[in-house]
Write a structure and sequence with these properties.
The longest helix has 14 residues. This protein has 7 helices and 9 strands; from the N terminus they run ααβαβαββαβαβββαβ. α1 packs across α2. By secondary structure, the protein is of the alpha/beta class.
């Protein structure tokens, strides 16, 4: 894993940093991974950009139910991914600000694409996902209230979650 991080760091030094307008995460290697993993086919927003918004956002969780049950963003709506169910959003106005998230942003990007096809006009993908949300001190909850637990998907992806308790169940 150290060699992977060194390779990512070298690529960042070689190719330079991304533009200030682009969403970003706090880790250079994680940012490079996301730049190549995601297709950037939908509007993206990062944790820092959300810190400055005054809009009332509907949070949509695009992870699997077991991940959501470990923790999720407060007041988020679970829709899943493999068994995607958009019915919890039927009462949401099509112009309502919506931010979709998953672990790192890949699954939520795909769900955001589907929401746009359904006619939602103000929907964005959370760049870096719940991992970056927690890495930057964002609150997560479960049925008992505030928690530090985050489902880390698996040990390969869990390396990008640097704060909180990694859960792999």
């Amino acid at each position: 894993m150290k060699s992977l991080i060194l390779i990512f760091s070298f690529c960042i030094m070689l190719f330079g940093k991304t533009s200030a307008q682009s969403p970003k995460v706090s880790s250079g290697p994680y940012n490079l991974l996301l730049r190549t993993l995601l297709s950037h086919s939908v509007p993206e927003v990062d944790v820092q950009q959300l810190a400055h918004t005054k809009e009332k956002i509907v949070w949509v969780d695009a992870r699997e139910k077991r991940e959501y049950e470990v923790s999720h963003l407060p007041n988020s709506v679970w829709v899943g991914y493999d068994q995607l169910d958009l019915s919890p959003l039927t009462h949401i106005p099509k112009n309502q600000p919506i931010v979709v998230y998953c672990s790192v942003g890949y699954r939520s990007e795909k769900v955001t694409e589907k929401l746009i096809k359904q006619g939602f006009t103000n929907v964005k993908n959370l760049y870096g996902g719940i991992f970056e949300w927690k890495n930057q001190g964002g609150e997560v909850v479960n049925e008992k209230g505030k928690t530090d637990d985050v489902h880390a998907y698996n040990k390969t992806w869990g390396v990008w979650l640097t704060k909180g308790n990694k859960i792999y169940q």
